[in-house]
Amino acid sequence: MRRARPRARRAAAPRLEGRAVALEFPPDLPFVLADAALVEQSIAQLLVNAAVHTPATARIRVTGGASPDSKRVFIAVSDDGPGIALELRERIFERFTRGPGARAGGLGLGLSIVRRFMLAQGGDATAESPPEGGARFTLFLPNANCQISPNE
Q: How many degrees, rounded to 5, is the angle at CA 80 between CA 51 and CA 108?
Protein backbone atom coordinates (compact mmCIF):
# COMPACT_ATOMS: atom_id res chain seq x y z
CA MET A 1 0.00 0.00 0.00
CA ARG A 2 1.30 3.46 -0.86
CA ARG A 3 1.94 5.77 2.03
CA ALA A 4 -0.35 8.82 2.07
CA ARG A 5 1.28 12.20 1.63
CA PRO A 6 0.84 14.63 4.50
CA ARG A 7 -2.02 17.06 3.92
CA ALA A 8 0.11 20.19 4.26
CA ARG A 9 2.49 18.93 1.61
CA ARG A 10 -0.43 18.03 -0.65
CA ALA A 11 -1.91 21.53 -0.22
CA ALA A 12 1.43 23.10 -1.23
CA ALA A 13 2.04 20.58 -4.05
CA PRO A 14 1.59 22.98 -6.99
CA ARG A 15 4.44 25.17 -5.66
CA LEU A 16 6.58 22.19 -4.66
CA GLU A 17 6.42 20.42 -8.01
CA GLY A 18 9.83 18.99 -8.89
CA ARG A 19 11.30 19.75 -5.46
CA ALA A 20 12.49 17.26 -2.91
CA VAL A 21 11.05 17.81 0.55
CA ALA A 22 12.69 15.84 3.36
CA LEU A 23 10.56 14.93 6.39
CA GLU A 24 12.42 14.19 9.63
CA PHE A 25 10.35 13.37 12.71
CA PRO A 26 11.37 11.22 15.66
CA PRO A 27 9.16 8.18 16.24
CA ASP A 28 8.45 9.36 19.80
CA LEU A 29 7.28 12.86 18.86
CA PRO A 30 4.83 13.92 21.59
CA PHE A 31 1.21 14.72 20.87
CA VAL A 32 0.24 18.39 20.75
CA LEU A 33 -2.78 20.38 21.80
CA ALA A 34 -3.74 21.86 18.46
CA ASP A 35 -6.33 22.31 15.75
CA ALA A 36 -5.14 20.02 12.97
CA ALA A 37 -6.54 22.19 10.17
CA LEU A 38 -4.77 25.32 11.45
CA VAL A 39 -1.48 23.46 11.81
CA GLU A 40 -1.80 21.97 8.32
CA GLN A 41 -2.52 25.39 6.82
CA SER A 42 0.45 26.87 8.66
CA ILE A 43 2.86 24.19 7.47
CA ALA A 44 1.51 24.49 3.92
CA GLN A 45 2.12 28.26 4.01
CA LEU A 46 5.70 27.73 5.19
CA LEU A 47 6.30 25.16 2.44
CA VAL A 48 4.94 27.55 -0.20
CA ASN A 49 7.13 30.36 1.15
CA ALA A 50 10.20 28.11 1.00
CA ALA A 51 9.40 27.16 -2.59
CA VAL A 52 8.74 30.73 -3.70
CA HIS A 53 11.75 32.34 -2.03
CA THR A 54 14.44 29.81 -2.92
CA PRO A 55 16.05 28.57 -6.12
CA ALA A 56 14.52 25.41 -7.61
CA THR A 57 17.59 23.43 -6.50
CA ALA A 58 17.32 24.47 -2.83
CA ARG A 59 16.62 21.74 -0.29
CA ILE A 60 13.51 22.01 1.88
CA ARG A 61 13.30 20.11 5.16
CA VAL A 62 10.46 19.67 7.63
CA THR A 63 11.64 18.52 11.04
CA GLY A 64 9.99 18.07 14.39
CA GLY A 65 10.85 17.43 18.00
CA ALA A 66 10.32 18.46 21.58
CA SER A 67 11.81 21.51 23.27
CA PRO A 68 14.59 20.80 25.81
CA ASP A 69 12.11 21.18 28.69
CA SER A 70 9.55 18.98 26.82
CA LYS A 71 6.78 21.55 27.38
CA ARG A 72 6.50 22.38 23.70
CA VAL A 73 6.68 20.50 20.43
CA PHE A 74 8.18 22.15 17.38
CA ILE A 75 7.79 21.74 13.64
CA ALA A 76 10.42 23.56 11.57
CA VAL A 77 10.52 24.24 7.84
CA SER A 78 14.09 24.97 6.69
CA ASP A 79 15.58 25.75 3.31
CA ASP A 80 18.93 26.40 1.65
CA GLY A 81 17.83 29.71 0.14
CA PRO A 82 19.20 33.20 0.70
CA GLY A 83 17.90 33.48 4.26
CA ILE A 84 16.06 36.36 5.88
CA ALA A 85 17.58 39.83 6.06
CA LEU A 86 18.21 40.95 9.63
CA GLU A 87 16.06 44.05 9.25
CA LEU A 88 13.15 41.92 8.02
CA ARG A 89 13.31 39.26 10.77
CA GLU A 90 11.77 41.55 13.37
CA ARG A 91 8.80 42.42 11.15
CA ILE A 92 8.30 39.29 9.07
CA PHE A 93 5.18 38.19 10.99
CA GLU A 94 3.50 41.60 10.74
CA ARG A 95 0.59 42.02 8.34
CA PHE A 96 1.43 43.35 4.87
CA THR A 97 5.17 42.82 5.34
CA ARG A 98 6.89 41.64 2.20
CA GLY A 99 10.54 41.05 1.57
CA PRO A 100 12.59 42.61 -1.19
CA GLY A 101 11.92 40.92 -4.51
CA ALA A 102 8.60 39.47 -3.31
CA ARG A 103 6.50 37.98 -6.09
CA ALA A 104 3.61 39.93 -7.57
CA GLY A 105 0.18 39.14 -6.22
CA GLY A 106 1.13 38.42 -2.62
CA LEU A 107 -0.27 40.66 0.10
CA GLY A 108 2.21 39.90 2.86
CA LEU A 109 -0.43 38.22 5.02
CA GLY A 110 0.67 34.56 5.01
CA LEU A 111 3.19 34.66 7.84
CA SER A 112 1.04 36.94 10.00
CA ILE A 113 -1.77 34.40 9.68
CA VAL A 114 0.62 31.56 10.56
CA ARG A 115 1.69 33.32 13.75
CA ARG A 116 -1.89 34.16 14.72
CA PHE A 117 -2.91 30.52 14.19
CA MET A 118 -0.10 29.40 16.52
CA LEU A 119 -0.79 32.06 19.16
CA ALA A 120 -4.49 31.14 19.18
CA GLN A 121 -3.46 27.61 20.20
CA GLY A 122 -1.05 28.61 22.96
CA GLY A 123 2.00 28.35 20.71
CA ASP A 124 4.15 30.67 18.63
CA ALA A 125 6.05 30.95 15.35
CA THR A 126 9.62 32.16 14.87
CA ALA A 127 11.88 32.95 11.94
CA GLU A 128 15.65 32.85 11.74
CA SER A 129 18.58 32.54 9.39
CA PRO A 130 20.76 29.81 10.91
CA PRO A 131 24.57 30.17 10.81
CA GLU A 132 24.76 27.44 8.14
CA GLY A 133 22.57 29.60 5.86
CA GLY A 134 19.04 29.54 4.52
CA ALA A 135 15.90 30.26 6.49
CA ARG A 136 14.15 28.35 9.24
CA PHE A 137 10.56 28.94 10.33
CA THR A 138 9.55 27.12 13.49
CA LEU A 139 6.07 26.47 14.83
CA PHE A 140 5.73 25.77 18.55
CA LEU A 141 2.72 24.09 20.14
CA PRO A 142 2.01 22.89 23.69
CA ASN A 143 2.90 19.30 24.49
CA ALA A 144 -0.38 17.54 25.27
CA ASN A 145 1.27 15.82 28.26
CA CYS A 146 2.36 19.07 29.96
CA GLN A 147 0.32 21.73 31.69
CA ILE A 148 1.77 25.18 31.06
CA SER A 149 0.38 28.61 31.73
CA PRO A 150 -0.38 30.89 28.75
CA ASN A 151 2.45 33.26 29.85
CA GLU A 152 5.22 30.66 29.59
A: 45
Q: Which helix (H) or strand (E) holds 113?
A: helix 110-120
Of the candidates 120, 112, 55, 109, the residue with the CA atom closest to the CA atom of residue 81: 55
Give me the count of residues in the chain: 152
Domain ranges of the chain: 7-142
Strands 60-66 and 21-24: parallel
CATH superfamily of 7-142: Histidine kinase-like ATPase, C-terminal domain (3.30.565.10)
Q: Which H/E stretch holds residue 42?
A: helix 36-52
Q: Give the β-pairing of 135-142 and 124-128.
A: antiparallel
Rg (CA), the chain: 15
Query: What is the pLDDT tens value at each position of the chain, 152 positions in all?
Result: 233 346 666 666 667 777 888 889 999 888 888 898 899 999 989 998 888 888 888 889 999 999 988 899 999 999 998 888 888 877 888 876 666 555 655 656 789 899 999 999 999 999 999 988 899 999 999 998 876 555 55
Q: Taking the CB of residue 144, how many other CB atoms lie within 10 A of it?
A: 12
Helix (H) or strand (E) holding 110: helix 110-120
